[in-house]
Amino acid sequence: MTKNIINTKTKMRRAVKKLSKQSVRKVTDIRVNNQNSVTNENQSKINFLKSLHSLQMYLSGVAKNLNGYGYKYQDFNEIIREIKNVIKSNNLDIGFMQYPTIKNFDGDLVNVITTTFYSPKSGYSESFDTPIYSEELTSTGVKNQNTLPQLVGSCITYFKRYALVAYLLIESEVDTDASSLEHVQEAHKEQAGSVNVPLVNSIKRDKTVNTKTVTKDTTKQPPVSHKSVTSLDKLPRRVPAKYHYYKNLLQASKRMHSVLEDTPFDSLEMIDKFLIQLKNDDDSSILKFFETKPELKTIKYWTYLINNYLKRTESDPEVIEGFSKFLTYREPKYGQSPLKLFGYIASDDIFGYLCE
């Protein structure tokens, strides 16, 4: 009897030891798998950035060989062909796609072109949005059914080209692009009527809009009035794209205001006032203020302020060093534009909080 009890205890001890070893092994496996996952993700990002850098370096300039009204611009199809040829000839692990969509920014709907670059092998990807500025196309009349689709199509193509040229640093022989959407509107000037019709920002079918063609006996088509497009009243209020560009800069200024001695704006009330005016499509006041303080237009001024703010609020010196690396990496993108700089800051995982 005693012998059986001893054998039973021995077996139990062995079973407990075995279970303990299995538990330790499982925990170790989980840690190793997590570490491998992080390592693989980092390596995927590194490989992607290498391919992106190679693509940027191998791309040659695309001539602005298409004529607009007083300017030249690059052929979108030629840009696509050039990018694909570089990827194929150098066997780069990178692909891209673009599509128009609607994004929600703080409850406001904005028409954008979403551009995504990705690695076909690892699946790693990076995306960014380019506003289409459709709210600026409000002075176009309509004489026939095809005008609105053509106008929207031209707008989409323009900003697809703009996004690729900016992101991939594609050079051109002559830098004479139009600074706004004037070329899109002028391209349809002969077709446009005298009545202003707002652009339908989200392309949806609406049963209240009659899209039937006119009969052959009709010699003159009546102008389209606002009342004929009843669905516009149901759409959410559109916030001008300029508001979203200035918003990041103004929000960052609000965050830094109480910490910095040299503040870009006189008071928090002034910042809030500018935000409200911009949301109502009025940038006259902030533009006048920028004229009184020319330093607000410089990258040097804003990077100095941000570095000063980080030194006062961040105890970890690696954060300051990280921001310097961020500036170095993004400098080809934002150039000399403070608005672009804050756009990149707002979308960054580490420093995006500055613009919240």
What would you say this structure looks like, in words?
The protein has 356 residues and is mainly alpha-helical. The protein folds into two domains: 66-203, no CATH class; 241-355, no CATH class. Helix content is 50%, strand content 9%. The protein is built from ten helices and five strands, in the order αββαβββαααααααα. It has helices at 2-58, 76-89, 147-167, 182-186, 241-257, 268-279, 284-292, 299-313, 317-334, 338-346; strands spanning 66-67, 72-73, 95-105, 108-118, 125-131. Strands 3-4-5 form a three-stranded antiparallel sheet, with helices on one face. A two-stranded antiparallel ribbon has the order 1-2. Strand 4 (108-118) and strand 5 form a beta hairpin. The longest helix has 57 residues, at 2-58. The radius of gyration is 28 Å and the shape is globular. The relative contact order is 0.08.
Oligomer: single chain
Distance between the termini: 75 Å
- Strand arrangement within the widest β-sheet reads 3-4-5
Unreliably modeled segments: 66-72, 173-233
Q: Helical stretch count?
A: 10
Number of E-type strands: 5
Q: Which structural category fits the helices and strands?
A: mainly alpha
Radius of gyration: 28 Å
The geometry reads as globular
- Total domain modules: 2
Global mean pLDDT: 73
Assess the beta-strand content as a share of residues.
Answer: 5-15%
Q: Which range best describes the helical content: under 10%, 10-25%, 25-40%, 40-55%, 55-70% or over 70%?
A: 40-55%
Q: What series of H and E elements makes up the topology?
A: HEEHEEEHHHHHHHH
Largest sheet properties: 3 strands, antiparallel
